[in-house]
Design a protein that fits this description.
The protein has four helices and no strands. With 75 residues, the protein is an all-alpha fold.
Length: 75
């Protein structure tokens, strides 16, 4: 009986995915490029160059860890 009560409903995840797919179809890649650029510029203004240095360093450390894990698993 619980199934009948939930019939026709969707999860938040499903709704988000469907909405994202619709925006992608209607607006295209250029839309996402533009909003990404605008977001990056705002973060740069608010947080500065040091923020990008910090997250770049963290990303580099993680890549290094993954490479080391990959090499260890080969042997």
């Amino acid at each position: 009986m619980a199934e009948k009560e939930n019939k026709g409903t969707m999860t938040v995840s499903e709704a988000g995915r469907l909405g994202g797919e619709k925006v992608a179809r209607e607006r295209g890649r250029e839309f996402y490029e533009e909003i990404g650029r605008m977001g990056g510029e705002k973060v740069a203004r608010e947080r500065g160059h040091e923020f990008y240095e910090e997250i770049g360093h963290k990303g580099g450390q993680r890549v290094r860890e993954l490479v080391e894990e990959g090499k260890a698993s080969e042997t």
